[in-house]
Write a structure and sequence with these properties.
Blueprint: E1 3-6, E2 10-13, E3 19-22, E4 27-31, E5 41-45, E6 51-54, E7 61-66, E8 70-75, E9 80-84
Parallel strand pairs: 1-3, 2-4, 3-5, 4-6, 5-9
Antiparallel strand pairs: 7-8, 8-9
């Protein structure tokens, strides 16, 4: 597991188990269904501004848990997206 510092506006989240830490700008994270599978967790740390999670064809959200500052999405392929610092 590693922390990927994200400064680009568009990032493909391609390493399950890694944490993607965005900077203070807007970012879009694309989740590739061929690079994540059941049991994988991708963590995104939201620093501020507006951030998006893009689910290409073939991926859907099957369940979600939302708190004041965190979001956990379970995808149709069994992978999970954990967003920390979400508002």
């Amino acid at each position: 597991m590693a922390i990927q510092l994200v400064t680009d506006a568009y990032t493909i989240a391609q390493t399950p188990g890694d944490t993607y830490k965005g900077d203070l700008s807007d970012q879009t994270y694309s989740i590739n269904p061929t690079l994540s599978q059941a049991g994988d967790v991708i963590t995104i740390i939201d620093q501020s501004d507006t951030n998006y999670i893009e689910l290409p064809d073939g991926l859907e959200i099957t369940s979600s848990i939302v708190t004041a500052t965190e979001l956990l999405l379970t995808l149709s392929n069994g992978a999970q997206i954990n967003v920390r610092g979400a508002e």
